[in-house]
Amino acid sequence: MNKTLLFCSLIFFFSCGVETQEIEEIPMETFRDEVKATPVKVGQSQRKSFDYLINASGKIEAENQVMSIVERSGYLIELKVEEGQQVKKGDIIALLDKTDSELEWEKAQVSLRTASAEYESLKIVSSVETTFSENLDKNSRDEFWRASSGLLAAQIAVREAENNLAKTEVKAPITGAIADLKIKKGSLVNAGDEICLVLSTRSLEMKVKVLESDISYVKKGQKTEVYPVSGTSDSEREKITGTVTSINPKVDENGLVQVTIKLSAGGSLLSGMNARAVIRAPQNNNLVVPKEAVVYRSGRPVVFTIDNNEAIWNYIEVGKDNGREIEVLDGLEADKTVIVSNNVQLGHQAAVQITTD
């Protein structure tokens, strides 16, 4: 029995010795080498000119829009335009019944001829009145005769009648497109009634609201890009260029400042359409990284650089963001290789492999 115990003890001792030997022969680096390196794409931190993009929304408006109104009472006998029609300044939009206006004009003409005859009679009579001639010079005598004969009043009446007759033709006040027709053919209209709005569709502008914190970056003459809200993307095909023409010198109750942008061309934009404007504010000598390089850990921005095929964790302080690049204010130097892909779950000193795929 003692032999049996001795044999079992030898087997147990031998087994433990073998196991201990095997564990000691496996180095720790072996486990590390078995962790596959994360494939990453990289970019560069650079000092460069940086376009800060200010985004603002607003409505497209015609730079000039004028309501066409009736200037005298009468029946609208003809409407010569329809909504959307292009007109030039002075084109006839509508015609009013001329009967009363023509009668007024004829009566004024009769009064004018009567006054002219009286005027000539006074001149003949006054030519023999030497006392009157001595007291007044030629121009004064003529003015007296014109007033006494009623010629002045008759001439004014004729001009009024001609003016009223001209008002029976309602003309386009500006060149543009007809909008918001309010009156139909055959309607009885009064002076001051609105017929339609004329919009200068070839000259559009956009009024946007910019945060007071960003207004210092906006200058008159700055170039902008305008995209209709109805568009599918910010493609070059949909982009309309514009220029900042004015900046309201007042901040409203919401901390916003109104900026007016004149559009270089109407394109597919219509007055009243919602659109988004992108104002470019160039900044010089800024340290920037691709936007994809910045990730957030516990609410703090982080950029991973690469050292000896390892990801190095860098806390940074970010500045402005233009949608493609982010300004770095602190925590990173220029000309560093930064990781721009597969960096969301990376850890400090994690093994990485640069790939271009």
TrEMBL record:
Output the superkingdom of the source species. Bacteria
> Which Pfam families does this entry report, sorted A to Z?
BSH_RND, CzcB_C
For the CzcB-like C-terminal circularly permuted SH3-like domain, which residue ranges apply? 288-342
User: What's an example of a GO molecular-function annotation for this chain?
Assistant: efflux transmembrane transporter activity
Please report the stretch or stretches of sequence annotated as the Multidrug resistance protein MdtA-like barrel-sandwich hybrid domain: 73-199
Listed under GO cellular component are: efflux pump complex
Entry's InterPro entries? CzcB_C, MdtA-like_BSH, RND_pump_MFP
User: Belongs to which family?
Assistant: Belongs to the membrane fusion protein (MFP) (TC 8.A.1) family.
Q: What is this protein called?
A: Efflux transporter, RND family, MFP subunit
Instruction: Print the organism lineage.
Output: Bacteria, Pseudomonadati, Bacteroidota, Cytophagia, Cytophagales
